């Protein structure tokens, strides 16, 4: 007997899910052990020409009735946003249906509640497509590395910002010009705020931290977030001079004592020999550093209808198999409870460019400020002379709060005309 699937949403991803279910019906049935059939599709408006050849009788505007129908076995949610997706998923779970979702925003905000409801109902909630499109990442972190201790997860999880920064690096283009190209190619929305200000990456970082460290305490609100709108051509040039490239990274990392985790999204200068530095265009990649497995990297297309639908179908096969076997994955049942520490406690390094007066003693005054805040300088160089004099300094690792205090003190020095640029520097984990 076929398993019936309720589909919530029929946009770019939803339509692709329907197409793949139809075109690969025989192969999917062989993998699952029974056929998968669309039992209904919830949309906002009926009568719209979707150009998909889907039977119009499948469409409905009553999503709640669809997900609670007795003949529905599985629910796929690709409408996005918090509501009505949250209410629909919880209703489906409470009705005994397993759910596949691509909704990063909802999981980042209410993932713990949804997983608890799924545990209580004995059903699955799978979400591979929520973090990095087609890249298999959720299950490797949740299952394959369950017996290991993950120290850090660091990744490019937003294709729009990676495209923009790649263009700035490769072509010397400015931020505005690169954003406009991304929009013309369909990589960026008309309103790119969620991408360029880091909101999209922050939601994904919260999900990654919960998976990597087995803690349900992390939400998007816990993620320190900075976007790329302030990245300048000068920052890109400084990175090049250091043998680095600028990337917007999501970084999830255990504290040195293992008692807490840090979760952040911000631009970084990354050495060009790091595997993530080679990720160009709109691609995504996630680099994992674990105690026993060592360094692992996952790479691929992070967005788009077909890649996202591929991840959705993979999850759909998994939850269908679990339903046939009368099993489920009880995610979050064994919560480590690790709290998120403030950004100020995160140990990192800074690259600081200062426009300074070109006279004796300036470097000594700058070095004194670093020393007063307990921050040591790794290297320093001067660029230009006279009115164009600039000091460029890179610190050793220190708490972010100490580094931020150092920068504020530098702004107040008479010898410093302006702090031209501040950016964090990342590499491989210490000792990793």
UniProtKB/TrEMBL annotation:
Extent of the signal sequence: none
Cited InterPro entries: ACT-like_dom_sf, ACT_dom, Asp/hSer_DH_NAD-bd, HDH, HDH_cat, HDH_CS, NAD(P)-bd_dom_sf
Domain of life: Bacteria
SUPFAM superfamilies per record: ACT-like (SSF55021), Glyceraldehyde-3-phosphate dehydrogenase-like, C-terminal domain (SSF55347), NAD(P)-binding Rossmann-fold domains (SSF51735)
Catalyzed reaction equations: L-homoserine + NAD(+) = L-aspartate 4-semialdehyde + NADH + H(+); L-homoserine + NADP(+) = L-aspartate 4-semialdehyde + NADPH + H(+)
Keyword Amino-acid biosynthesis among UniProt keywords: yes
Pathway annotation from the record: Amino-acid biosynthesis; L-threonine biosynthesis; L-threonine from L-aspartate: step 3/5; Amino-acid biosynthesis; L-methionine biosynthesis via de novo pathway; L-homoserine from L-aspartate: step 3/3
Keyword NADP: yes
Domain ACT, residue spans: 351-424
Keyword line: Amino-acid biosynthesis, Methionine biosynthesis, NADP, Oxidoreductase, Sodium, Threonine biosynthesis
Enzyme class: oxidoreductase
One annotated GO molecular function: homoserine dehydrogenase activity
Enzyme Commission number(s) of this protein: 1.1.1.3
Pfam family of the protein (one): NAD_binding_3
Family to which this protein belongs: Belongs to the homoserine dehydrogenase family.
Function (record text): Catalyzes the conversion of L-aspartate-beta-semialdehyde (L-Asa) to L-homoserine (L-Hse), the third step in the biosynthesis of threonine and methionine from aspartate.
PANTHER family membership: HOMOSERINE DEHYDROGENASE
Protein name: Homoserine dehydrogenase
The species this protein was found in: Nocardiopsis mangrovi
